[in-house]
Specification:
Helix content: 10-25%
Number of helices: 8
Order of helices and strands: EHEEHEEEEHEEEEHEHEEEHHEEEH
Largest sheet: 8 strands, mixed
Radius of gyration: 20 Å
Bound molecules: flavin-adenine dinucleotide
Distance between the termini: 22 Å
Strand content: 25-35%
Length: 378
C-alpha cells in the first residue's frame, strides 16, 4: 500500500512512527491451492492466520499482503488497547481485552502489553483528583477511568507474523490480491497467477473496498499522530502520565495519546476525508490537508502544558482508518460467497479488537464458531 511509496525527499509518504517492524517474508513460489487464504497482513489477517494453524495445523494457510507486513493501519497505529468496539459493547462480543491478552499469550507474542487502565479526558465533568490538567479549548482533565492499556505496535505486528510463520502459515509480501472469483473453490489472482482457496478472509481494512464489498458501507479516512523527543521522568509526572495510562477525549476537539519508549509522548488527532480509498495511495503528510492538520496538532501539543511548550517532535506520521455504518466492525460473510469472510472497519478502535476478532474469524472459517449478527452480509 502507500506506505512503501516515498516522497521526493525519500521519506515514506505516511511518515515514520517511533517503532520498527522486524519481519520479512521469505521469497517462495506461490501455491496453486490452499485451504485458507488470508488477504491483508495487518493485525487482523496475521492473528487469523496464526490462529487457524494453532487450532488445526493440518490446514494449509497463506497470507497475501500487497506491500509489507504492517504497511496499513497496524504499523501506523497508536497502540492503545481498548475494550469493546468503537460503538461500545455488541451482542455476544464478550471480553475483548481478556480474549486479546489470552490470544497473545497462546501465540507467544511479546509486545509490551500493559493494561493499567485508560483515561477518558474531557472539558466537562473533570474529576476532582484528575492527574491531568491541560489547556485545550478549555480546561482538559480526566472524567473517567476505563479498562485499557498499550502495546508496542511494531512488536505486535512482527510477533503475530512470526507466530503465523512458526506455526506453518505461508506469508507473501508484495503479493496483492488483484481479483477474487467467487467460485467453489474461490480463485485469487496474485502476481498474475491463480491461487485456489476453500475459504478466504478479507482483512484489507481501508484499501481494496471493492474486493471486500465495503465500498458502499464504509468510508476510508486518514488520521495523524506525533511523538515528542524523550521527556524527563519528572516532567512526565507533571503531565499526569506517570502511571502509563493512555488517554483519549470523550468530547471535541478530539485528542488521544500515550507514553512510549524513553518517555516520548504520542499525541494524535485530525481526519483527512477522502472521496475514494485510492487517494490513500498518493497521500503525503508533508503537503495538503494532512500537513495542515499535523501543523494544528503540533500547535495544540505545545499549548497543552508548560512542559510541552518548547518540546521537539521527533516523529510525525499518519495512517488509514475505516469507518463503517453505525461504527460497528464489519464481520460477516461476503454477499457473493459464504466461504469468504470480511473482517475490519474498526473505526479507529482496532488494536485489541483486530486480534480478538481475527481469532474468532479463524474459528468461524474452521466451522467451529458462528459469526456474530452485527450487520447484514458484507
Ligand atoms: C494513526 C492511527 C492511530 C490509531 N490508534 C489506535 C489506537 O490507539 N487504538 C486502537 O484500538 N486503534 C487505533 N487505530 C486503528 C487500528 O490501528 C486499526 O484498526 C488496526 O490496525 C486495523 O488492523 P487491520 O489488520 O484490520 O488493518 P491494516 O493494518 O490496515 O491491514 C490491512 C492490510 O491489507 C493490505 N491489503 C489491502 N488490500 C490488499 C489486497 N488487495 N491484497 C493484499 N493485501 C491488501 C494492506 O496493505 C494492509 O497491510 C489507529 C489507526 C491509525 C491510522
Amino acid at each position: 500500500m502507500a506506505t512503501v511509496a516515498r516522497n521526493a525527499a525519500g521519506v515514506p509518504r505516511w511518515g515514520l512512527p517511533p517503532w520498527t517492524i522486524k519481519f520479512r517474508a521469505e521469497e517462495r513460489e506461490l501455491p496453486e491451492a490452499v485451504d485458507f487464504a488470508v488477504v491483508g497482513g495487518g493485525f487482523t489477517g496475521l492473528a487469523a492466520a496464526a490462529w487457524l494453524r494453532r487450532v488445526d495445523a493440518r490446514q494449509s494457510v497463506a497470507v497475501f499482503e500487497t506491500s509489507s507486513i504492517g504497511a496499513g493501519s497496524s504499523g501506523h497505529t497508536g497502540g492503545m488497547t481498548l475494550a469493546e468496539t468503537a460503538s461500545g459493547d455488541l451482542p455476544g462480543l464478550g471480553d475483548v481485552l481478556g480474549g486479546f491478552s489470552e490470544i497473545l499469550r497462546e501465540l507467544h507474542v511479546e509486545c509490551d502489553l500493559n493494561l493499567p487502565g485508560a483515561l477518558e479526558i474531557g472539558r466537562v465533568g473533570i474529576l476532582a483528583d484528575s492527574p491531568i490538567e491541560w489547556a485545550d479549548s478549555g480546561k482538559l482533565g480526566v472524567t473517567r477511568e476505563v479498562p485499557g492499556g498499550t502495546i508496542d505496535p511494531g512488536k505486535m505486528v512482527s510477533g503475530l507474523a512470526k507466530a503465523a510463520r512458526q506455526r506453518g502459515a505461508l506469508i507473501f509480501e508484495s503479493a496483492g490480491v488483484e481479483n477474487l472469483q467467487h467460485g467453489e473453490p474461490a480463485t485469487l489472482e496474485v502476481r498474475g497467477k491463480q491461487v485456489r482457496a476453500r475459504c478466504v478472509l478479507l482483512a484489507t481494512n481501508a484499501a481494496s473496498l471493492e474486493l471486500s464489498g465495503l465500498a458502499k458501507r464504509a468510508q476510508a479516512k486518514f488520521t495523524m499522530a506525533v511523538a515528542t523527543e524523550p521527556i524527563p521522568e519528572q516532567q512526565i509526572r507533571r503531565l499526569g502520565l506517570a502511571a502509563g495510562k493512555p488517554f483519549y477525549t470523550v468530547d471535541l476537539p478530539y485528542l488521544w495519546g500515550r507514553v512510549v519508549y524513553e518517555s516520548r509522548v504520542i499525541f494524535g488527532s485530525g481526519l483527512v476525508h477522502l472521496e475514494d480509498w485510492r487517494e490513500l495511495l498518493a497521500l503525503d503528510i508533508t503537503v495538503g490537508q494532512a500537513a495542515e492538520l499535523l501543523g494544528q496538532l503540533e500547535q495544540r501539543v505545545h499549548e497543552l502544558h508548560p512542559v510541552l511548550q518548547d518540546v521537539r517532535l521527533s516523529h510525525r506520521w499518519g495512517g488509514p482508518i475505516l469507518i463503517a455504518d453505525k461504527w460497528h466492525p464489519a464481520f460477516a460473510r461476503h454477499g457473493a460467497n459464504r466461504n469468504v469472510i470480511v473482517l475490519g472497519a474498526y473505526s479507529g478502535h482496532g488494536v485489541a479488537l483486530s486480534v480478538y476478532l481475527g481469532a474468532w474469524a479463524a474459528e468461524a472459517m474452521l466451522g467451529k464458531r458462528e459469526l456474530p449478527q452485527w450487520d447484514a452480509e458484507g
